[in-house]
Predict the structure.
Amino acid sequence: MRTVAVALALVSATIGATAALSAEDPLMKEAQGLFQPIPNKPPVVKDVVATPALVELGKALYFDPRLSESHNISCNTCHQIGLGGVDMLPVSIGHKSQKGTRNAPTVLNSVFNTAQFWDGRAADLKEQAGGPIQNPVEMAITHQHAIEMLRGIPGYKPLFEAAFPGDKDPVTIQNVEKAIAVFEATLITPNAPFDKFLRGDGNALTAEQKAGLRLFIDQGCASCHNGINVGGGMYAPFGVVEKPGADILPPTDKGRFQVTKTADDEYVFKVPTLRNIELTPPYFHTGKAWDLKQAVGVMATSQLGEHLSDDQISKITAFLHSLTGEQPMVTYPILPPSTATTPQPEM
Ligand code: HEC
Ligand code: HEC
Protein backbone atom coordinates (compact mmCIF):
# COMPACT_ATOMS: atom_id res chain seq x y z
CA MET A 1 0.00 0.00 0.00
CA ARG A 2 2.72 2.40 1.01
CA THR A 3 4.74 1.55 -2.08
CA VAL A 4 1.82 2.31 -4.33
CA ALA A 5 1.29 5.69 -2.70
CA VAL A 6 4.97 6.55 -3.16
CA ALA A 7 4.89 5.40 -6.77
CA LEU A 8 1.80 7.46 -7.45
CA ALA A 9 3.36 10.50 -5.84
CA LEU A 10 6.43 10.01 -8.01
CA VAL A 11 4.35 9.76 -11.18
CA SER A 12 2.42 12.91 -10.39
CA ALA A 13 5.65 14.74 -9.46
CA THR A 14 7.13 13.78 -12.82
CA ILE A 15 4.04 14.88 -14.70
CA GLY A 16 4.04 18.11 -12.71
CA ALA A 17 7.67 18.78 -13.58
CA THR A 18 7.13 18.11 -17.28
CA ALA A 19 4.11 20.38 -17.36
CA ALA A 20 6.05 23.13 -15.58
CA LEU A 21 8.96 22.81 -17.99
CA SER A 22 6.94 23.00 -21.20
CA ALA A 23 4.95 25.93 -19.84
CA GLU A 24 8.00 27.88 -18.72
CA ASP A 25 10.14 27.40 -21.82
CA PRO A 26 8.40 30.21 -23.73
CA LEU A 27 8.43 32.38 -20.59
CA MET A 28 12.17 31.87 -20.19
CA LYS A 29 12.77 32.59 -23.89
CA GLU A 30 10.67 35.72 -23.74
CA ALA A 31 12.43 36.87 -20.59
CA GLN A 32 15.83 36.26 -22.19
CA GLY A 33 14.79 38.57 -25.01
CA LEU A 34 13.83 41.38 -22.63
CA PHE A 35 16.36 41.19 -19.77
CA GLN A 36 20.01 40.30 -19.27
CA PRO A 37 21.67 38.82 -16.18
CA ILE A 38 24.06 40.88 -14.02
CA PRO A 39 27.61 39.73 -14.87
CA ASN A 40 29.75 38.19 -12.15
CA LYS A 41 32.60 40.65 -12.73
CA PRO A 42 32.39 44.47 -12.55
CA PRO A 43 32.08 46.10 -15.98
CA VAL A 44 34.71 48.47 -17.33
CA VAL A 45 34.18 52.19 -16.68
CA LYS A 46 34.73 54.10 -19.93
CA ASP A 47 38.34 55.25 -20.39
CA VAL A 48 39.46 54.08 -16.94
CA VAL A 49 41.53 50.98 -16.17
CA ALA A 50 40.41 49.55 -12.82
CA THR A 51 43.59 48.62 -10.97
CA PRO A 52 43.32 47.36 -7.37
CA ALA A 53 45.00 50.61 -6.19
CA LEU A 54 42.38 52.71 -7.97
CA VAL A 55 39.48 50.71 -6.50
CA GLU A 56 41.02 51.02 -3.01
CA LEU A 57 41.33 54.80 -3.39
CA GLY A 58 37.76 55.04 -4.65
CA LYS A 59 36.55 53.04 -1.68
CA ALA A 60 38.37 55.31 0.79
CA LEU A 61 36.87 58.40 -0.86
CA TYR A 62 33.40 56.83 -0.89
CA PHE A 63 33.53 56.30 2.87
CA ASP A 64 35.42 59.48 3.83
CA PRO A 65 33.14 62.03 5.56
CA ARG A 66 35.89 64.66 5.26
CA LEU A 67 34.84 65.04 1.65
CA SER A 68 31.97 67.11 3.10
CA GLU A 69 32.14 70.63 4.55
CA SER A 70 31.01 69.35 7.98
CA HIS A 71 33.26 66.24 7.89
CA ASN A 72 30.09 64.43 8.77
CA ILE A 73 28.64 63.15 5.50
CA SER A 74 30.11 60.62 3.10
CA CYS A 75 28.65 59.02 0.00
CA ASN A 76 27.87 56.06 2.25
CA THR A 77 25.72 58.24 4.54
CA CYS A 78 23.02 58.39 1.88
CA HIS A 79 23.99 55.31 -0.13
CA GLN A 80 24.70 52.75 2.58
CA ILE A 81 26.21 49.67 1.05
CA GLY A 82 24.77 47.51 3.84
CA LEU A 83 21.26 48.87 3.20
CA GLY A 84 20.87 48.07 -0.48
CA GLY A 85 22.76 51.23 -1.47
CA VAL A 86 20.17 53.67 -0.07
CA ASP A 87 19.40 55.57 3.16
CA MET A 88 15.82 54.32 3.60
CA LEU A 89 14.56 57.86 4.08
CA PRO A 90 11.85 59.48 1.97
CA VAL A 91 14.30 62.23 1.04
CA SER A 92 17.95 62.40 2.07
CA ILE A 93 19.29 64.56 4.88
CA GLY A 94 22.47 66.44 4.03
CA HIS A 95 24.58 69.39 5.16
CA LYS A 96 23.28 71.05 8.37
CA SER A 97 20.45 68.51 8.44
CA GLN A 98 18.86 70.03 5.36
CA LYS A 99 16.32 67.85 3.63
CA GLY A 100 16.84 67.23 -0.08
CA THR A 101 13.96 67.11 -2.50
CA ARG A 102 14.32 63.59 -3.85
CA ASN A 103 14.69 60.03 -2.63
CA ALA A 104 18.23 58.63 -2.89
CA PRO A 105 18.39 55.96 -5.61
CA THR A 106 20.56 52.92 -5.00
CA VAL A 107 24.21 52.97 -6.05
CA LEU A 108 24.13 49.18 -6.47
CA ASN A 109 24.28 48.30 -10.18
CA SER A 110 24.08 52.02 -11.03
CA VAL A 111 26.96 51.43 -13.46
CA PHE A 112 24.42 49.71 -15.74
CA ASN A 113 22.09 52.74 -15.93
CA THR A 114 22.34 54.67 -19.18
CA ALA A 115 22.17 57.97 -17.26
CA GLN A 116 22.37 59.01 -13.60
CA PHE A 117 19.93 60.86 -11.29
CA TRP A 118 16.12 60.74 -11.44
CA ASP A 119 16.25 63.28 -14.28
CA GLY A 120 19.31 61.81 -16.02
CA ARG A 121 21.32 65.03 -15.67
CA ALA A 122 24.64 63.17 -15.39
CA ALA A 123 25.72 60.92 -18.24
CA ASP A 124 27.74 58.45 -16.20
CA LEU A 125 29.20 57.71 -12.78
CA LYS A 126 32.31 59.84 -13.36
CA GLU A 127 30.20 62.89 -14.14
CA GLN A 128 27.81 62.02 -11.33
CA ALA A 129 30.39 61.72 -8.53
CA GLY A 130 31.29 65.41 -8.60
CA GLY A 131 27.67 66.49 -8.09
CA PRO A 132 26.90 65.53 -4.48
CA ILE A 133 30.28 66.73 -3.20
CA GLN A 134 29.43 70.33 -4.04
CA ASN A 135 25.62 70.14 -3.80
CA PRO A 136 24.75 72.65 -1.03
CA VAL A 137 22.15 70.33 0.53
CA GLU A 138 24.36 67.25 0.29
CA MET A 139 28.08 67.40 1.10
CA ALA A 140 28.28 71.15 0.45
CA ILE A 141 32.02 71.47 -0.16
CA THR A 142 33.46 73.26 -3.20
CA HIS A 143 35.62 71.12 -5.43
CA GLN A 144 38.53 73.43 -4.66
CA HIS A 145 38.08 72.98 -0.92
CA ALA A 146 37.65 69.21 -1.33
CA ILE A 147 41.04 69.10 -3.02
CA GLU A 148 42.61 71.30 -0.30
CA MET A 149 41.17 68.83 2.20
CA LEU A 150 42.64 65.79 0.46
CA ARG A 151 46.01 67.52 0.06
CA GLY A 152 45.81 68.37 3.77
CA ILE A 153 45.55 64.68 4.69
CA PRO A 154 49.11 63.47 4.02
CA GLY A 155 48.14 59.78 3.87
CA TYR A 156 46.14 60.35 0.70
CA LYS A 157 49.17 61.33 -1.40
CA PRO A 158 50.61 57.79 -1.69
CA LEU A 159 47.14 56.39 -2.37
CA PHE A 160 46.62 58.80 -5.28
CA GLU A 161 50.15 58.15 -6.56
CA ALA A 162 49.56 54.39 -6.57
CA ALA A 163 46.18 54.82 -8.28
CA PHE A 164 47.44 57.27 -10.93
CA PRO A 165 51.10 56.29 -11.50
CA GLY A 166 51.44 58.42 -14.65
CA ASP A 167 50.21 61.71 -13.14
CA LYS A 168 52.65 64.33 -11.85
CA ASP A 169 50.00 65.91 -9.63
CA PRO A 170 47.38 63.21 -9.11
CA VAL A 171 45.23 64.83 -6.38
CA THR A 172 42.60 66.43 -8.66
CA ILE A 173 38.82 66.42 -8.69
CA GLN A 174 38.81 64.55 -12.02
CA ASN A 175 40.82 61.76 -10.41
CA VAL A 176 38.52 61.75 -7.36
CA GLU A 177 35.56 61.25 -9.72
CA LYS A 178 37.35 58.50 -11.66
CA ALA A 179 38.32 56.62 -8.50
CA ILE A 180 34.83 56.81 -6.97
CA ALA A 181 33.27 55.72 -10.29
CA VAL A 182 35.57 52.71 -10.55
CA PHE A 183 34.76 51.70 -6.97
CA GLU A 184 31.02 52.14 -7.61
CA ALA A 185 31.31 49.87 -10.65
CA THR A 186 32.30 47.06 -8.25
CA LEU A 187 29.00 47.47 -6.38
CA ILE A 188 27.03 44.97 -8.43
CA THR A 189 24.69 42.24 -7.21
CA PRO A 190 24.96 39.08 -9.36
CA ASN A 191 23.22 35.72 -9.01
CA ALA A 192 19.72 36.82 -8.06
CA PRO A 193 17.18 34.02 -8.59
CA PHE A 194 16.06 35.92 -11.70
CA ASP A 195 19.64 35.92 -13.08
CA LYS A 196 19.78 32.15 -12.59
CA PHE A 197 16.46 31.84 -14.41
CA LEU A 198 17.76 33.97 -17.29
CA ARG A 199 20.80 31.68 -17.46
CA GLY A 200 18.52 28.68 -17.94
CA ASP A 201 17.68 27.39 -14.45
CA GLY A 202 13.92 26.84 -14.64
CA ASN A 203 13.75 26.07 -10.91
CA ALA A 204 15.28 29.35 -9.79
CA LEU A 205 11.87 31.05 -9.62
CA THR A 206 8.87 29.81 -7.62
CA ALA A 207 5.58 29.18 -9.42
CA GLU A 208 4.25 32.44 -7.94
CA GLN A 209 7.29 34.36 -9.18
CA LYS A 210 6.87 32.90 -12.66
CA ALA A 211 3.21 33.94 -12.66
CA GLY A 212 4.40 37.41 -11.57
CA LEU A 213 6.98 37.57 -14.35
CA ARG A 214 4.27 36.59 -16.86
CA LEU A 215 2.09 39.46 -15.59
CA PHE A 216 5.07 41.84 -15.53
CA ILE A 217 5.60 41.15 -19.24
CA ASP A 218 1.96 40.85 -20.35
CA GLN A 219 0.69 43.88 -18.45
CA GLY A 220 3.42 46.05 -19.98
CA CYS A 221 5.73 46.76 -17.03
CA ALA A 222 8.61 45.36 -19.08
CA SER A 223 8.06 47.92 -21.83
CA CYS A 224 9.78 50.42 -19.50
CA HIS A 225 11.53 48.23 -16.91
CA ASN A 226 13.76 46.02 -19.05
CA GLY A 227 17.39 45.30 -19.88
CA ILE A 228 20.10 44.31 -17.45
CA ASN A 229 18.81 46.58 -14.65
CA VAL A 230 15.10 45.90 -15.22
CA GLY A 231 14.99 49.68 -15.67
CA GLY A 232 17.63 52.40 -15.88
CA GLY A 233 17.58 52.45 -19.67
CA MET A 234 14.99 55.08 -20.65
CA TYR A 235 12.81 57.98 -19.53
CA ALA A 236 9.04 58.01 -19.13
CA PRO A 237 6.43 60.38 -17.75
CA PHE A 238 5.25 59.48 -14.24
CA GLY A 239 1.52 59.30 -14.95
CA VAL A 240 1.40 58.25 -18.61
CA VAL A 241 -2.26 57.27 -18.32
CA GLU A 242 -3.36 58.73 -15.00
CA LYS A 243 -1.46 61.22 -12.81
CA PRO A 244 -0.90 59.82 -9.33
CA GLY A 245 -2.04 61.99 -6.40
CA ALA A 246 -0.09 65.12 -5.44
CA ASP A 247 1.26 63.31 -2.37
CA ILE A 248 3.19 60.92 -4.62
CA LEU A 249 3.77 63.30 -7.54
CA PRO A 250 3.78 66.90 -6.29
CA PRO A 251 3.60 69.54 -9.05
CA THR A 252 6.86 71.21 -7.94
CA ASP A 253 9.33 68.62 -9.27
CA LYS A 254 8.99 68.55 -13.04
CA GLY A 255 11.75 65.97 -13.46
CA ARG A 256 13.59 65.94 -16.76
CA PHE A 257 11.94 69.20 -17.81
CA GLN A 258 14.39 70.91 -15.43
CA VAL A 259 17.25 69.56 -17.57
CA THR A 260 15.91 69.92 -21.12
CA LYS A 261 13.31 72.74 -20.72
CA THR A 262 11.17 70.89 -23.27
CA ALA A 263 7.42 70.82 -22.52
CA ASP A 264 7.27 67.12 -23.45
CA ASP A 265 9.64 66.38 -20.59
CA GLU A 266 7.37 67.67 -17.82
CA TYR A 267 7.11 65.02 -15.08
CA VAL A 268 9.36 62.71 -17.06
CA PHE A 269 11.75 60.67 -14.91
CA LYS A 270 14.35 58.04 -15.52
CA VAL A 271 12.75 54.61 -15.30
CA PRO A 272 14.48 53.34 -12.16
CA THR A 273 16.13 49.95 -11.82
CA LEU A 274 14.04 47.34 -10.03
CA ARG A 275 17.10 45.31 -9.05
CA ASN A 276 17.09 44.68 -5.25
CA ILE A 277 13.87 46.67 -5.05
CA GLU A 278 12.64 44.81 -1.95
CA LEU A 279 15.65 46.25 -0.07
CA THR A 280 15.16 49.90 -0.98
CA PRO A 281 11.94 51.39 0.38
CA PRO A 282 10.50 53.96 0.40
CA TYR A 283 9.66 54.13 -3.31
CA PHE A 284 9.38 56.78 -6.03
CA HIS A 285 11.45 59.95 -6.42
CA THR A 286 9.37 61.39 -3.60
CA GLY A 287 9.88 58.36 -1.34
CA LYS A 288 6.18 58.35 -0.56
CA ALA A 289 5.35 54.63 -0.85
CA TRP A 290 6.75 52.36 1.87
CA ASP A 291 4.99 49.24 0.67
CA LEU A 292 6.24 47.61 -2.52
CA LYS A 293 2.73 46.32 -3.23
CA GLN A 294 1.41 49.86 -3.06
CA ALA A 295 4.12 50.99 -5.50
CA VAL A 296 3.16 48.19 -7.92
CA GLY A 297 -0.50 49.22 -7.70
CA VAL A 298 0.34 52.88 -8.34
CA MET A 299 2.44 51.92 -11.37
CA ALA A 300 -0.36 49.80 -12.83
CA THR A 301 -2.90 52.61 -12.64
CA SER A 302 -0.61 55.55 -13.47
CA GLN A 303 1.52 53.95 -16.21
CA LEU A 304 -0.84 51.38 -17.70
CA GLY A 305 -4.37 52.38 -16.70
CA GLU A 306 -4.86 48.91 -15.22
CA HIS A 307 -6.49 48.19 -11.89
CA LEU A 308 -4.79 44.98 -10.82
CA SER A 309 -6.33 42.56 -8.31
CA ASP A 310 -4.62 41.92 -4.97
CA ASP A 311 -3.65 38.50 -6.30
CA GLN A 312 -2.00 39.98 -9.40
CA ILE A 313 -0.18 42.57 -7.30
CA SER A 314 1.07 39.82 -4.94
CA LYS A 315 2.39 37.78 -7.85
CA ILE A 316 4.21 40.72 -9.44
CA THR A 317 5.66 41.62 -6.04
CA ALA A 318 6.83 38.02 -5.57
CA PHE A 319 8.58 38.29 -8.94
CA LEU A 320 10.22 41.57 -7.87
CA HIS A 321 11.64 39.74 -4.86
CA SER A 322 13.51 37.44 -7.25
CA LEU A 323 15.57 40.49 -8.30
CA THR A 324 17.53 40.55 -5.05
CA GLY A 325 21.10 39.49 -5.80
CA GLU A 326 24.24 38.79 -3.79
CA GLN A 327 25.06 42.00 -1.95
CA PRO A 328 28.63 43.33 -2.31
CA MET A 329 30.84 42.42 0.64
CA VAL A 330 32.89 45.53 1.32
CA THR A 331 35.46 45.73 4.09
CA TYR A 332 35.30 49.11 5.77
CA PRO A 333 38.47 51.01 4.84
CA ILE A 334 40.91 52.45 7.38
CA LEU A 335 41.12 56.08 6.28
CA PRO A 336 44.33 58.14 6.39
CA PRO A 337 44.27 60.30 9.56
CA SER A 338 43.90 64.08 9.70
CA THR A 339 46.83 66.09 11.04
CA ALA A 340 47.19 69.48 12.75
CA THR A 341 47.30 71.16 9.33
CA THR A 342 44.29 69.41 7.79
CA PRO A 343 41.53 71.98 7.12
CA GLN A 344 38.95 71.83 9.88
CA PRO A 345 35.23 71.12 9.52
CA GLU A 346 32.72 73.94 9.01
CA MET A 347 29.66 73.12 11.06
C1 HEC B 1 22.89 63.88 1.37
C2 HEC B 1 22.67 62.60 0.73
C3 HEC B 1 23.57 62.18 -0.42
C4 HEC B 1 24.95 62.15 -0.43
C5 HEC B 1 25.90 62.58 0.64
C6 HEC B 1 25.30 61.56 -1.71
N1 HEC B 1 24.19 61.26 -2.44
FE1 HEC B 1 24.11 60.33 -4.20
N2 HEC B 1 22.19 60.78 -4.38
C7 HEC B 1 21.42 61.37 -3.41
C8 HEC B 1 20.11 61.72 -3.97
C9 HEC B 1 18.96 62.37 -3.21
C10 HEC B 1 20.16 61.37 -5.33
C11 HEC B 1 19.07 61.61 -6.37
C12 HEC B 1 19.18 63.06 -6.78
C13 HEC B 1 18.44 63.39 -8.05
O1 HEC B 1 18.09 62.50 -8.81
O2 HEC B 1 18.22 64.59 -8.31
C14 HEC B 1 21.48 60.76 -5.55
C15 HEC B 1 21.88 60.18 -6.76
C16 HEC B 1 23.05 59.43 -6.88
C17 HEC B 1 23.37 58.56 -7.99
C18 HEC B 1 22.49 58.29 -9.21
C19 HEC B 1 21.87 56.94 -9.14
C20 HEC B 1 20.79 56.77 -10.17
O3 HEC B 1 20.29 55.65 -10.35
O4 HEC B 1 20.39 57.75 -10.80
C21 HEC B 1 24.61 58.03 -7.74
C22 HEC B 1 25.38 57.06 -8.61
C23 HEC B 1 25.07 58.61 -6.50
N3 HEC B 1 24.08 59.43 -6.00
C24 HEC B 1 26.32 58.40 -5.96
C25 HEC B 1 26.84 59.21 -4.93
C26 HEC B 1 28.25 59.33 -4.59
C27 HEC B 1 29.38 58.65 -5.30
C28 HEC B 1 28.33 60.19 -3.52
C29 HEC B 1 29.56 60.71 -2.83
C30 HEC B 1 30.48 61.48 -3.66
C31 HEC B 1 26.96 60.57 -3.19
N4 HEC B 1 26.10 59.98 -4.08
C32 HEC B 1 26.61 61.36 -2.12
C33 HEC B 1 21.78 61.55 -2.10
C34 HEC B 1 23.11 61.66 -1.70
C1 HEC C 1 5.71 53.95 -19.11
C2 HEC C 1 6.82 53.41 -18.40
C3 HEC C 1 6.58 52.58 -17.15
C4 HEC C 1 5.76 51.47 -17.04
C5 HEC C 1 4.88 50.84 -18.09
C6 HEC C 1 5.94 51.00 -15.68
N1 HEC C 1 6.82 51.79 -15.00
FE1 HEC C 1 7.43 51.52 -13.09
N2 HEC C 1 8.38 53.30 -13.16
C7 HEC C 1 8.46 54.14 -14.25
C8 HEC C 1 8.98 55.42 -13.86
C9 HEC C 1 9.25 56.62 -14.75
C10 HEC C 1 9.21 55.34 -12.46
C11 HEC C 1 9.74 56.45 -11.56
C12 HEC C 1 8.55 57.22 -10.98
C13 HEC C 1 9.01 58.34 -10.07
O1 HEC C 1 9.19 58.11 -8.89
O2 HEC C 1 9.21 59.44 -10.58
C14 HEC C 1 8.83 54.00 -12.06
C15 HEC C 1 8.93 53.51 -10.76
C16 HEC C 1 8.62 52.21 -10.38
C17 HEC C 1 8.82 51.66 -9.06
C18 HEC C 1 9.49 52.38 -7.89
C19 HEC C 1 11.00 52.23 -7.99
C20 HEC C 1 11.80 52.98 -6.96
O3 HEC C 1 13.00 52.71 -6.85
O4 HEC C 1 11.28 53.85 -6.29
C21 HEC C 1 8.38 50.37 -9.09
C22 HEC C 1 8.40 49.36 -7.95
C23 HEC C 1 7.87 50.12 -10.41
N3 HEC C 1 8.04 51.25 -11.17
C24 HEC C 1 7.30 48.94 -10.85
C25 HEC C 1 6.53 48.85 -12.00
C26 HEC C 1 5.61 47.75 -12.29
C27 HEC C 1 5.40 46.54 -11.41
C28 HEC C 1 5.01 48.06 -13.47
C29 HEC C 1 3.89 47.30 -14.17
C30 HEC C 1 2.66 47.17 -13.37
C31 HEC C 1 5.60 49.30 -13.95
N4 HEC C 1 6.48 49.75 -13.02
C32 HEC C 1 5.27 49.90 -15.15
C33 HEC C 1 8.08 53.82 -15.55
C34 HEC C 1 7.22 52.78 -15.86
